Amino acid sequence: MYTIKVKLIAFQGASEEIISRGEQILRNKLTDFNIEITDQNPDVLFILTGGSENEAKGILKNKKQILILAMTESNSYAAATEIKAYCNQNKIDSTLYNIDNEAELQSKLNYYLRSSKTLTKLKNYKIGVIGEVSEWLIASDIENNILNTKLGVQLEKIDWNDFPKYSEYPVNTEFLNHFDNSGFNLEDSSKIYNLLKDIIKQKQVDAITVECFPLVVENAVTACLALSKLNTEGFASGCEGDITSITGKIIVKELTEQIPWMANIAGLEEDKIFFAHCTIATDLISDYKIRTHFETNKGTAVQGKFKAENATVLRLNNELSKAFVSFGKIVERPEREDSCRTQIKIEIPQEDIAKLKENPLGNHHLLIPGDHVELLKYFCKLTGIELI
Question: Could you say which of 3.30.450, 1.20.1070, 3.40.50, 3.90.1150 is the CATH number of the domain covering 3-102?
Answer without folding.
Answer: 3.40.50
